[in-house]
Every structure is written in C-alpha cells, then in structure tokens.
Amino acid sequence: MKKYSIIKFGSQLNSNFDKYSDKDLLVVADTSRHLSFLYEKYSSQGWSVSGYTYSKLKYLSNKGSLFISHLKKDSEILFDYRNKFQELLDSHQIERDFKNEIKGSKDYFDILRNIPDNQLGYAWFADCFYVGLRNYLIFKNAERNIFEFSYLNIIELLRQNCQVTETEYTLLRELRVVKFNYREDILDELPSKLYVLSLIQIARKLDLFESSNFIETLLFENLTLSYIKESNFNGYQRLRLIEGIYCAKEINIPEVKRIISNPQFYASRLMDNKFMMEIIRQLNKNATQHFVNLMAGKVHV
Fold first, then answer.
1. Domain of life, per the record (predicted)?
2. H or E element: which one contains 91?
3. What is the pLDDT averaged over residues 277-286?
C-alpha cells in the first residue's frame, strides 16, 4: 500500500512559470527511510524534491509556518494516503507575528560577509542571495497580511512600492536566471563581479546588510571555517558556507546543490559538532566524493 503523499507545489503552478522556474515536488511519509526512497525515485525523474514526515509537517502547521500556507496556496495533490495531507492543510492556521522570522531571515545574510573572488564564488553569492531575499520578503509581506510566495510576484511588489528602481528590478529578474545556471551547471554563463556589486547595492538599499568583501581562496577558507566553528549558524547556513569553500577552490559539486534543496535530510547532522569536524577534515583533503557520501548518509562518522 502507498502510505505516502505526493504534491506538486510552487511556481510551476503559476501563470508565469517558465524554464527558469523550479519544478518542485513534496513527498510526505511516516519515516525518514521511506522519504529517502521517494527522494531517490522522484529526483531521478528531474524533480526538485523536498521531503517531510507527516509529524514534521504537523509540527510546522501547529507553529503557523508560512511554508504550510505556501502549500495551501500553491500546490496540487497528486496522491494522498487517506487524505492525510489535505486534512493537515484544512486545519492550518497562519501565524500572525513574524518578528522572529524576519530577524532570522536577516541574520541569514551573515554568511555573505565574504565572497570568493572568482566566477564560481560570484555565482555562489548570487544563489545564496536569491534564497535569502525571497525568504526575507515573504516574511516582510506577511507582516502586512500579503501572502505571496512567487519570487517574480514578490519582486514586482518591490517595484510597485518604489522600493527598487526599474534597473534594480531588472537585475532581480536576472537573478532567477543566474540561480538556474548555477544549479544546472551552466558554467559558461556565470555572473560577473560587477553584477554581484549591483546586488550588494540592492541589499544595502533594502537594509539587508551593508557590504561584503571579495577575498582570495585561502583567506576565504580560513575565515569561513572559523565562522562555522564559532558562530551560531543553523544547518543550512553551515552547508552553504561549506559550499562556498568549494567554490573558492573552483570545485563544482552538483550533488551539493541537490542536497541544498532538502534541508530535512541534513539539518540535524550539520548541527552535530563531531559530524562538522569530519566535514572540515574532508574539506582540507579536497575529498569531494567522501563529503557527498557523508551528506547523503552513505557513510557515517
């Protein structure tokens, strides 16, 4: 018996869906083991798969998570075991106080204080910036009772509210293409340093952060490893910083980009200091495949 739920969600269901939009699929099951099976099955078919247990989604719903609101607004159920997912959506109530979420989404940008000074590093920065900007604006809009999750619609609101100029709006539209090229390994179309400097100006204008430093490989690696050890970064921030170190070394790892879209598969491991020390050891040895196997849970510390 199929004891799981499969849901299409996100921008693919919007009228402005195009080749640069994510092809998001949510899989929900009772156990992590079942989720891993479903993840492998559907990611091999070209989906960007996110997976949660029913209990985790229920927890998020009880907390008033906007992710559940996003699913309620922009999703299409393909299969739903005993209507468990639909019942969760029906019972969901939106949280009305987003102060902590707004602060957390601004704190996320702490990972972008330094940028590897090469093209892969610029692309890494742009991808991280896209994620942070979208999340921050979702919460800022929700504070005003505007529940919008489409990136294109979100930046359109910025333009309508005169928070960005037409030129800046165009740069933010281009950011989707930059993210797509980076994640799809179209490495001959990576962003320029000038483009990244323009994004930093937009960040300053929106009061996200003041500045970033372009630094060479070894210094970026040393500073970033220090930040990972000493700062209270969450699992996602830690992974993105590790990814940044590989980009500083101009090492592209497609598997890491797939792992990034599945925080439920790695977040708890990256908060384990013993696990992080092993990751750092592999970084120092440039052992990329062992790193990927660690993240995928194929080898253990």
1. Bacteria
2. helix 84-91
3. 70
Report the domain count for the chain. Answer: 3
**In this predicted structure, what is the pLDDT of residue 95?**
74
- CA-nearest of 287, 288, 290, 280 to 228 is 280
Q: 85 is in which domain, residue-wise? A: 4-91
279 closest CA partner among 223, 231, 240? 240
For position 288, what pLDDT does the model report? 64
Query: Is 66's pLDDT higher than 90?
Result: yes
**179 and 196 part of one domain:** yes
Q: Are 112 and 192 within one domain?
A: yes
For residues 152 and 239, state if they share a domain.
no
Q: Report the range of poorest mean pLDDT among 1-5, 155-159, 178-182, 198-202.
A: 1-5
Whole-number average pLDDT of the chain: 89
Residue-wise pLDDT tens digits, 100-148: 999 999 999 999 999 999 999 999 999 999 999 999 999 999 999 999 9
301 within domain boundaries: no
Q: Which of 186, 214, 242 is the last residue of a domain?
A: 214
Rounded to whole angstroms, the Cα distance separating 19 from 37 reads: 27
- Non-local CB neighbours of 78 within 8 Å, separated by 6+ positions: 6, 7, 8
Contacts of 173 (CB under 8 A, 6+ apart): 152, 155
Tell me the pairing of strands 48-53 and 75-80: unpaired
Distance from C-alpha of 126 to C-alpha of 112, rounded to nearest angstrom: 10
Contacts of 132 (CB under 8 A, 6+ apart): 105, 108, 109, 112, 208
Give the torsion through C-alpha atoms of 121, 110, 48, 256, to 10 deg.
50
Residue 167 lies in a domain: yes
Residue 280 has pLDDT above 80, yes or no: no
Would residue 291 count as lying in a domain?
Answer: yes
Domain assignment present for 243: yes
